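Example noted here:
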Amino acid sequence: MIGAHAKDSIERIFFAAARTRLVTDAQHNCEIGPCAADAAQGARVVVLTISSMQFRLLLLLHFEDDEATRRYYVGDAQGALTESFMEFGNLCCGAMNQQLVEHFPDLGMSTPYALSSECLPYLRELKPDYVSTYALTLDHSVQLGATLCVCSQTALDFVANAADVEAHDSAGELELF
């Protein structure tokens, strides 16, 4: 039920959001490539949801609680990696939401939550219309994974303007509804 244009648009929107919101410094590189669903990086998963009347998009960000990831997202602070990573995931999902709201004005976002990556095989229970998994490398050292999962109640197709997706850059300010 999800058209090729919608799949391409969702992917481009995610890539742009990941490159600007999952990095801790705007100068850091974020390399993104496809990977098999069972090869996604990370024992933990942060789940974020964007929902509308027409569809539900789940963004699952996979991460390991390893030295490189901890140093990248927590630094020398004694804070918990999961909470810090959820904040960056929320910024990424919010950037996606800002692009999607131009096509779907009735969007809502969930609060992020963390799960074990052992739950990933259960995505099929949602009967998704589209699932795509990616490997991400941040600043040449941190390995993450990402899964986009879209479930739709109706036919879904739209084209996100490429210039708007790449050029859209906000400071992640709070939006009030």
